[in-house]
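Module 6 notes. Inverse folding takes a fixed backbone as the condition and produces residue identities as the prediction. Think of it as a translation problem where the source language is geometry and the target language is the twenty amino acids. Below is one complete input and output pair. Work through it position by position during the lab.
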C-alpha cells in the first residue's frame, strides 16, 4: 500500500511524495481476539509480584508450649506463633502471586502488525518526512498537532527519537514519543493518531523480515 508523506512544519499536511508500505505489516485485517490477547499479556507483564504474608508456619518464634493444657485458667495455646499473639503468623494471609504470563512470539508479532494495520485502515496513520524542529520550540509542535486535530498522538521515530522533537514534546501531555524498538500494541491502540517517521517505517519493516 502507498501513503502520502506529510511534513511536520505544514501541520502534517500530505505532500506529493509517497512511500510504499508493506502489505504484510500495514495491510492486514485486524482481529480483535489477537489484539486482546496481546494487550492483556502486555498489561499483565507490568504488574509486580504480589508479596505473601507470613503465616503461622513462617514466623520464627518458639514452639514451646506456654503452660499446662488444663488448670491454668487461660486458653489452651500450643505456642507463640498463633495469630492471636502479637508477632504471630497471619491467619488466612495473602499468597504470593507472580503475574508473569507467557505469549508466543509469533502472536506478539502478529498483534503489532495488526495494530499498525488498524491505524492505517482507520486513516489514522501519518508518515512524516522528518521530525526535526527548529530550535526545539514547543509552540511550533503544538501548533502542528493542533492543526492535525488529534486529542492524543503517538509518535514513533527510528533508532533514537529526534532530540529536538523529544525536547519540544516534553511539555505536551497529548503527545507520546517512542523509538522504533519501543513500539507496542497497547500504546498504538490507545493513541488517536499514529505518526511514524521514515526511519520508523524502515525499522518496523526490518523488524519483521525474519
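Target side of the pair, the amino acids:
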Amino acid at each position: 500500500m502507498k501513503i502520502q508523506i506529510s511534513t511536520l512544519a505544514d501541520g502534517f499536511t500530505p505532500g506529493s511524495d509517497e512511500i510504499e508500505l508493506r502489505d504484510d505489516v500495514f495491510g492486514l485485517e485486524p482481529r480483535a481476539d489477537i489484539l486482546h490477547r496481546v494487550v492483556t499479556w502486555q498489561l499483565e507483564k507490568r504488574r509486580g509480584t504480589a508479596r505473601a504474608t507470613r503465616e503461622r508456619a513462617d514466623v520464627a518464634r518458639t514452639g514451646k508450649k506456654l503452660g499446662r493444657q488444663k488448670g491454668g485458667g487461660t486458653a489452651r495455646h500450643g505456642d507463640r506463633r498463633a495469630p492471636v499473639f502479637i508477632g504471630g503468623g497471619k491467619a488466612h494471609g495473602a499468597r504470593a502471586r507472580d503475574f508473569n504470563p507467557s505469549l508466543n512470539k509469533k502472536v506478539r508479532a502478529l498483534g503489532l502488525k495488526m495494530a499498525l494495520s488498524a491505524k492505517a485502515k482507520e486513516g489514522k496513520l501519518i508518515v512524516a518526512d522528518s521530525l526535526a524542529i527548529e530550535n526545539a520550540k514547543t509552540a511550533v509542535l503544538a501548533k502542528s498537532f493542533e492543526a492535525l486535530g488529534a486529542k492524543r498522538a503517538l509518535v514513533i521515530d527510528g533508532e533514537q527519537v529526534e532530540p529536538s522533537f523529544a525536547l519540544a514534546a516534553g511539555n505536551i501531555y497529548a503527545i507520546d514519543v517512542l523509538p522504533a524498538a519501543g513500539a507496542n500494541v497497547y500504546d498504538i491502540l490507545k493513541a488517536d493518531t499514529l505518526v511514524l517517521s521514515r526511519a520508523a517505517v524502515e525499522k518496523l519493516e526490518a523488524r519483521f523480515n525474519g
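Reference fact for the lab report: The radius of gyration is 28 Å.
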